[in-house]
Specification:
alpha+beta; 6-stranded mixed sheet; 3 helices; about 20% helix
Length: about 190
C-alpha cells in the first residue's frame, strides 16, 4: 500500500509539472500564435551576410562553447527582430550531428551580444520597438525533439522553458508541433523540412 501511494504521488507531481509547463507554454505562445512567423535554420546563414565587425563579439561568445566541436561562426542570418529598420544577426556558433545549432544573436549598431538560442529551427516574428520571444525546435533523436521558448530579459535572450517532446510527424509521445509553427514562412529558400 505504501509503495502504491508513493507511485500515485510521483505520477501526480509529474502530471502537475507537465500541466504547469503547458500553461507557461501557452503564456509565451499566445502572443505570437496569430502573427506571421519566419523560420530559419543553419541553411539560411550565409558567409556574405556576416558583418566582419562582429568578429570580436563572436570570439567572446565562442568561449562558452565546447572546444571539441567544429565551429560555423563564419556566416549569419539577418533578421530585423524589433522592427527598428536594422538587422540583427544570428550566427551559428557550433552545430551537432542532428542539425541543432547554438546560434548567437548580435546587433551591429550598437555592437551587442543578445544571447544564445539552441535548436535546428528558430521561429521569430518582428514587433516594433520590442524584442519578441523566440521559439526553437531541436532534435534529441532521429524522431523526437523539443520546443524551447526564449524571452528577452535584462539585455539578453534567456530560456524560459522546454515543452513537448515532439517531432513533425507526431513522434513516440504523439505530440505534434503546433500548427501555427508549421505555417511559418521560410526565412530562405533552403530552410529544411
Amino acid at each position: 500500500m505504501k509503495q502504491l501511494r508513493k507511485r500515485f504521488v510521483v505520477h501526480a507531481l509529474l502530471a502537475i509539472g507537465w500541466c504547469s509547463s503547458v500553461v507557461a507554454q501557452d503564456k509565451y505562445w499566445l502572443e505570437i500564435k496569430g502573427k506571421p512567423l519566419v523560420k530559419f535554420d543553419w541553411n539560411c546563414a550565409l558567409p556574405a551576410t556576416l558583418p566582419k565587425s562582429l568578429s570580436p563579439l563572436i570570439k567572446t561568445a565562442l568561449k562558452g562553447e565546447d572546444p571539441g566541436l567544429r565551429y560555423y561562426a563564419d556566416r549569419a542570418f539577418g533578421y530585423d527582430l524589433n522592427r527598428d529598420g536594422k538587422l540583427e544577426y544570428f550566427v551559428p556558433l557550433d552545430c551537432g550531428a542532428t542539425g541543432n545549432c547554438t546560434f548567437g544573436a548580435f546587433t551591429l549598431n550598437p555592437k551587442k551580444f543578445l544571447g544564445k538560442v539552441n535548436g535546428e529551427y528558430v521561429y521569430v516574428h518582428g514587433r516594433s520597438g520590442v524584442w519578441p520571444d523566440l521559439i526553437t525546435y531541436g532534435h534529441f533523436s532521429a524522431a523526437e525533439g523539443i520546443l524551447t521558448t526564449y524571452t528577452f530579459r535584462r539585455g539578453r535572450y534567456r530560456e524560459v522553458g522546454d515543452y513537448l517532446r515532439t517531432d513533425f510527424r507526431g513522434g513516440i509521445f504523439g505530440n505534434k508541433v503546433p500548427a501555427f509553427l508549421e505555417r511559418a514562412r521560410k526565412g530562405c529558400e533552403t530552410v529544411g523540412y
